[in-house]
Specification:
Order of helices and strands: EHEHEHEHHHEHEHHHEEE
Number of strands: 9
Shape: globular
Oligomer: single chain
Strand content: 15-25%
Distance between the termini: 37 Å
Strand order of the largest sheet: 1-4-3-2-5-6
Helix content: 25-40%
Length: 284
């Protein structure tokens, strides 16, 4: 039976016992409402570690004042059942006061690469992400942590944080998991009505256009690729573009010429729901 822990102290007590046995630990940080994308991370962690911890915590400090913290979908019992089915050993489900003591005032912030893409549109978001992930690393004592490529900027930011602060943990990036029709799996997909769900397919469709230009037609001009993606999205009446960017994968700096590993990332509002998607060209 899967262990359900609610406090950092509970996690540490169990982890200490695992460490005495020299067992390796994989961590899958999530905000719950688990789907097949999360499942792929848990499966990968299960393959590579002796013990697997899944954190299930809707982190309040990464939401802006006008964002959807209260509305964010939650279903802990379903999450627990899926984790147990996939062979996770522990699910860590704290309450906010367990993670953030009264007068909490210590944060982790990564500069520069958090100022672009989603970071430019959501001030303070990555400070909240880096702070909670740092705490999860400390609490879990994990050897490896697993993050999906769908949140590509998050993956890049966490890798930079781990490098800069010398965390003794390996960050494992995992591929985007999609629905059969190409829509990237996301907890926010549940916000879409039927018409919006159909309209959301424009994200993957536009990225496919961009990828074909680069890989099949040999186009290396970033503006040409971005313009083609923009034209495809603008044909969808329910879509409103937040950003379309092509950046160097490691630094997330804008590029004019596609040469070496690059990330092509988009954020699009479908109705009131903000969705993100991306592709990476080159070895990363």
């Amino acid at each position: 039976m899967i262990i359900v822990a609610h406090t950092p102290a509970e996690v540490r007590e169990i982890v200490d016992a695992w460490k005495v046995q020299n067992l390796s630990i994989g961590l899958v940080p999530t905000m719950g409402f688990l789907h097949e994308g999360h499942a792929s991370l848990i499966k990968k962690a299960r393959e590579e570690n002796d013990r697997v911890i899944v954190s299930d915590f809707v982190n309040p400090i990464q939401f802006g004042p006008s964002e959807d913290f209260e509305a964010y979908p939650r279903d802990f019992e379903a999450d627990k059942a899926l984790c147990e089915e996939l062979g996770a050993d522990m699910i860590f489900n704290p309450e906010a006061p367990d993670m953030y003591a009264e007068n909490f005032s210590t944060y982790v912030n990564v500069d520069e690469i958090t100022d672009v893409l989603c970071g430019a549109k959501r001030p303070g978001h990555f400070k909240g992400v880096c702070t909670v992930v740092s705490k999860l690393f400390n609490i879990s004592g994990a050897d490896r942590a697993y993050f999906g490529q769908k949140d590509a900027q998050q993956l890049a930011v966490i890798r930079r944080m781990v490098r800069d602060l010398n965390f003794p943990i390996e960050i494992v990036g995992c591929p985007i998991i999609r629905e059969d029709d190409g829509l990237a799996k996301s907890s926010r997909n549940t916000y879409l009505n039927e018409a919006e769900r159909k309209a959301a397919l424009v994200l993957n469709r536009s990225l496919q256009k961009g990828m074909e230009l680069i890989l099949d037609d040999g186009i290396d001009d970033a503006k040409t690729v971005k313009d083609a993606i923009r034209m495809e999205i603008e044909q969808e009446g329910l879509a409103m573009i937040d950003y379309i960017e092509i950046v160097e994968w490691d630094s997330l700096a804008n590029v004019n010429k596609i040469d070496g590993p690059v990330l092509c990332a988009i954020a699009v509002y479908i109705g009131k729901t903000r969705l993100i998607d991306n592709f990476i060209v080159g070895e990363v």
